[in-house]
Amino acid sequence: MTDNYLEIFKETGALLEGHFVLTSGRHSATYFQCAKVLQHPEHLSHFAETIVDYFSETEIDTVISPAVGGIVIGTEVGRQFGVKTIFAERQNGKMTLRRGFEITNSEKILVVEDVITTGGSVKEVMDVVEENGGIVVGVGVVVDRGGGNVVLHENQFAVTTQTAMSYRSDEIPEDLKQVPIEKPGSRSLK
Known about the structure:
Rossmann fold, globular
């Protein structure tokens, strides 16, 4: 198994080029479609194992992920740790626990996500954990597309860190403005 993660994304068709609106609302010419790479069991297992290895000395009771993107990798990380895995999802625009998921007081929780740009969804999940009395013990992600500039937790790890330019809607370069917008993520275009 190669550790050239960018090559894995390219080989599986999971590194897309075009004009994308990211979950963060920012615009980019590149998009990491983790669902396409994580559909391959060997890559899913490898990425999860890399996260598990990093957090192997951390006491973890539960893994939580933001829906929808983080569920697959979060579930595999939880399976490899042998702990409960849950997810938070939006209800009326606010990240929340549903489906009977609960967090107990002082439960040690690892937040796992597929891709971060600004870390907004992960921050919201961390808030949900803390609001429910849990303790965030770390954040693990497959792709940090912000070049390592987004620090969400003192115990944070990314399988791969890439620098993929992204832009606010008022700073999109002229050449990118000419490309039709795509929104392949888990939130619909607004």
